Amino acid sequence: MLTYNSKDWFKFIFFFRRSDTVRKLLPLMIGMGLFTWLIAWLELKYLLISEREVIKNVSMMHTMLTFVISMLLVFRTNSAYDRWWEGRKLWGALVNNSRNLAIKLNAMLPSEDKYNREFYNKTISIYANVLALHLKSELTKFELDEKDHPELLQLESGKHLPNQVASLLFRRTNRLYEEKKISGDQLIILNGELISFTDICGACERIKNTPIPLSYSTFLKKFIFFFVLTLPFSFVLSLQYWAIPVVAFIFYALTSLEVIAEEIEDPFDGDENDLPIMKIAENIKKHVAEIL
Amino acid sequence: MLTYNSKDWFKFIFFFRRSDTVRKLLPLMIGMGLFTWLIAWLELKYLLISEREVIKNVSMMHTMLTFVISMLLVFRTNSAYDRWWEGRKLWGALVNNSRNLAIKLNAMLPSEDKYNREFYNKTISIYANVLALHLKSELTKFELDEKDHPELLQLESGKHLPNQVASLLFRRTNRLYEEKKISGDQLIILNGELISFTDICGACERIKNTPIPLSYSTFLKKFIFFFVLTLPFSFVLSLQYWAIPVVAFIFYALTSLEVIAEEIEDPFDGDENDLPIMKIAENIKKHVAEIL
Amino acid sequence: MLTYNSKDWFKFIFFFRRSDTVRKLLPLMIGMGLFTWLIAWLELKYLLISEREVIKNVSMMHTMLTFVISMLLVFRTNSAYDRWWEGRKLWGALVNNSRNLAIKLNAMLPSEDKYNREFYNKTISIYANVLALHLKSELTKFELDEKDHPELLQLESGKHLPNQVASLLFRRTNRLYEEKKISGDQLIILNGELISFTDICGACERIKNTPIPLSYSTFLKKFIFFFVLTLPFSFVLSLQYWAIPVVAFIFYALTSLEVIAEEIEDPFDGDENDLPIMKIAENIKKHVAEIL
Amino acid sequence: MLTYNSKDWFKFIFFFRRSDTVRKLLPLMIGMGLFTWLIAWLELKYLLISEREVIKNVSMMHTMLTFVISMLLVFRTNSAYDRWWEGRKLWGALVNNSRNLAIKLNAMLPSEDKYNREFYNKTISIYANVLALHLKSELTKFELDEKDHPELLQLESGKHLPNQVASLLFRRTNRLYEEKKISGDQLIILNGELISFTDICGACERIKNTPIPLSYSTFLKKFIFFFVLTLPFSFVLSLQYWAIPVVAFIFYALTSLEVIAEEIEDPFDGDENDLPIMKIAENIKKHVAEIL
Amino acid sequence: MLTYNSKDWFKFIFFFRRSDTVRKLLPLMIGMGLFTWLIAWLELKYLLISEREVIKNVSMMHTMLTFVISMLLVFRTNSAYDRWWEGRKLWGALVNNSRNLAIKLNAMLPSEDKYNREFYNKTISIYANVLALHLKSELTKFELDEKDHPELLQLESGKHLPNQVASLLFRRTNRLYEEKKISGDQLIILNGELISFTDICGACERIKNTPIPLSYSTFLKKFIFFFVLTLPFSFVLSLQYWAIPVVAFIFYALTSLEVIAEEIEDPFDGDENDLPIMKIAENIKKHVAEIL
């Protein structure tokens, strides 16, 4: 992830970074331009359709559907953003719970108990690390797929790692309790942080392995495709060759929304828009070490 | 459920999967096309209505209502999606709580206590299974219906199964406490996971047995029906025979939203868009066995 | 409440159930039609206003306000639906907590303690019943009204019944604790369910006795009224007698939204759209009896 | 607050209550009418601008901005409503917690302990009262203002009263625990209710002392003002003197939304739209006395 | 932050405060005006483009995209406002938890234990202060940036201060428990407040260091820029020199939304729209001292 100054309009407008939708859509925009040019040539030069022909009124369809396509796309981007933000919240909660667990254990364990301090120091940081790797794995993504994935079988590293680390943490804490190193009251107040790890892991897996319903996604793409592809037919009659940049820009504006949504709906992938989960895991390591 | 690559536009646009609304709506789209053709023939060839007649202005009504119908449909789909996503969250919570319960019991029960370990290993997985079956049942769907359903009586399998399994889990845990195998402090930290099962079950039942208010659903369908059916009257005067694909496409765009909403508002049915609850139940079984 | 098959379009479109807004609005739709006919006759036959007169441009006002009235109405219906759905969630929570309380007590109370088992079995079911009646009462609705309601005084049945039942439940549980029939740890894990009853009751009362702000409700109705009533003035010039069904349909589409909102914003009333709280109370009774 | 029957359209449309925006905006509506009349006279009689002049196309600006101003106003009203409803929920939670605290203490305190019963009976009711007064105070409103308010200093009644009452409640409860009148387990289950008082107080203060960001509020008012003031320039060319009622009505429709938002965003003020917090405090008193 | 009277329209409309978007955008509005004047001169005087040329139809593009740009901007401002309001809620929660912790410790600590009372009195207030400074720091903002920031290294003050203070608080509380000055039950009920500090800190850091996804932000700015810059081409043909103020006003209305969003999405910066966190920290100090 890149931290940027949102007020620097100049950079935003005239620079084209890797994640910029202009760069991604440029070939398609040129394609749309050529397509529009073709339609323009056909209608204006070959078929000689005059501006008064009914074909021009196809724009009635576009006018009627502008609302619905705009709303769908804006809502699509918003709900992808909600997933992204939920992912960020979950990793924020992981930070909080790692810190709180360290703060509590620091107070409860005698300062000379190097053995247990070392253990928690390492294991808490490892959890964040293991979870980050777990979320980047293809195995996690296809966990709920109805098709088999023989190509992923070789990746299968045996057990579910975050669960194993969480289990280690809980076992050690319970042993401290059984050995009377911490009291029952202290066990109770450690419980919240200990279960949070698995809750966060499960919620991240949910975001990762559950795309939006297939039929919704299919419909949206078919709708955009057909909407944009029929634009030139009426636009070239009103705008002649000016229709080329106009259609390309409308294509850019609408399709960007879908493209951005695709980018951010899986926030654990590691491209420029995604959540910096490795960085967060590093910070957890640093802060836990500071405390414990 | 099918895990798909949302960036593969080509497949989305040119393939027509089973859950694609194009496939579902095709007969009706052809019907709308024929109806539009009929109106076109009537107005243009038989009644010879000219473009300047007032009937053309019926489009004023459509313009005025486009906005409200678009918002209604987009909100309809969104609120159906919210139910679907809530269902997914609930099953995610079931995963988390099953894992946490297993992790805790693994730490608390002595490793030689095969008897109890076996019990929890089995019973936690069974809960997910029993709940999945309970949610697919017609009985659950019609639980709150004001009409009687004599045809479902033979299905009635006696008691409410998920409740019985949850009761088993709690009884065993309470017995462990009474036999001092776990302490009171440990009982308290097991409580959260134990009650979560019944909470999740109740929330899933709510999604299953409470459709959106009848009068809202009725209104929406009557509104779409009348809106689309009156479109050809004015469109054929502006677009002549081009109105046929135009009306069919508008019909497709609007009706798809309602059809998708109908599909996903009950997320426990097992079709291509629905939540893979059997698969999740399997995963719970696998992960709990790994831990315990 | 009626459980329906949302995919049965035919029934939705051609049947007119009791809660259908078409049935409710039919007299007013006929009224709007007659009013439009009157305006049409006046403008077209009596005043002989031509299509080129400025009065036709009144439609500019309608165009400009279409957005805002559509959004207001759709949001109005959505926020009424949110209340309805919150009501459903609260009753779902009542189901969950009743079941969990029964499951826990079943595990904690010795199976021969018929006396206490009977008590909880009855009292938990009674709570749901008493709450359902409490929410249907006019007294509850006017609890926060600034005007006095002498006509309701005779209904006043003394004390607040749900509170009394909740108090009974808590007293008995506390007595079990004092008599050492349940331990302190067990008391702590029963606490969550016991307080939930009163929390649910208070939240339902809030939905019942707090309508949306008066000035908002007033504005919305005045706005719809004036918007629809001025429609015919410009529409009859464009549509002549076709304006009659057109205005009636626009009236139906817009007013239905407000009418549906009025129906569902108080979800505890017992009409076809309302929540089946008596049925839920019955189910609680059945399931608690199964468990305990 | 006034409890009203939302289905009584007649009253809503033809009565003009104190909180009706028509009454509040009437002078301004008349002003807008006169201004429009002035512009109409200027353009039509004095400058003799014909309908074909470019000034008429200023309506292009209004068309383009209609949507954004509509959304802004509807969202503005909705977010003000969300504050109002959050305020209502908080006071609902105060009711619930007061009742639950009373129910619990009733069970825990021996019935002959008049001294403590009396104390809680009084102090719980007093909290609601003190909080209601605290929220109506100007001091609370300007607590976070960056300007000094010497005129309010004389109001400063020393300490923060709700905090003092909450502190009393907690001190007494802790004393009961130290005197072994309640056990540690009972203290733990009383904790939730005791901290809720201060949480509710803080949340109400937040709603009271944090208006929406200044620059947003400023922008919205400037936008409405300029939008409505430029309407007559193009409307009088299309509508002539009919523009007078039309502009006045558009002004009414748009400005009402902002006026309603201003009314309800501070829900603790005591006018007709505000929350009946004194009434709720009374009810708390009544119900707590019934229980304890 | 400035507490203002939202009903004082006069001040809002005719005063131009520091945070007013009119002041910020004035140079750009003048720029847009000059640009429009240039286009007007070019098209009307130099190229002599008549009103009937196709270039005028470029407005079709603007009409089609008005809806999507309006929604994007309104949603953008709303989601920035949500961050701002979440920040306010978090600081409200800090107030509540500081108060509750003080209230509880006041009850639990013997009144003669000046040593511990002093400690909590100071440390609770210090936490709010330290957090406020931590959130204003550039280091916090760039914590997750993928680029290195050598220029900030000198600021690095060693350890994470809020964590250190939270650790102090927990250590002292745990020592009180070990020294039997507070019981285990009391430790349990202090736990909620103690962990809340770190949770609030982490959530504020999240708001501070995670801007909205880069590609979304880039797209929005490019879209606004291109949309507004192409407006004059068609508007000068319809409006001639009137296009100058019209384009400037549309520019003001749309860009203000983005500018306001940029302002409020980081609520911890200290300008006129930002949250008064230093003031809240002062209030916490005052109220904690009153209680303890």
UniProtKB/TrEMBL annotation, chains A, B, C, D, E:
<dbReference type="Pfam" id="PF25539">
    <property type="entry name" value="Bestrophin_2"/>
</dbReference>
<feature type="transmembrane region" description="Helical">
    <location>
        <begin position="21"/>
        <end position="42"/>
    </location>
</feature>
<feature type="transmembrane region" description="Helical">
    <location>
        <begin position="223"/>
        <end position="254"/>
    </location>
</feature>
<feature type="transmembrane region" description="Helical">
    <location>
        <begin position="54"/>
        <end position="75"/>
    </location>
</feature>
<dbReference type="GO" id="GO:0005886">
    <property type="term" value="C:plasma membrane"/>
</dbReference>
<keyword id="KW-0813">Transport</keyword>
<keyword id="KW-1133">Transmembrane helix</keyword>
<keyword id="KW-0472">Membrane</keyword>
<dbReference type="GO" id="GO:0005254">
    <property type="term" value="F:chloride channel activity"/>
</dbReference>
<keyword id="KW-0406">Ion transport</keyword>
<dbReference type="InterPro" id="IPR044669">
    <property type="entry name" value="YneE/VCCN1/2-like"/>
</dbReference>
<comment type="similarity">
    <text>Belongs to the anion channel-forming bestrophin (TC 1.A.46) family.</text>
</comment>
<protein>
    <recommendedName>
        <fullName>Bestrophin</fullName>
    </recommendedName>
</protein>
<keyword id="KW-1003">Cell membrane</keyword>
<keyword id="KW-0812">Transmembrane</keyword>
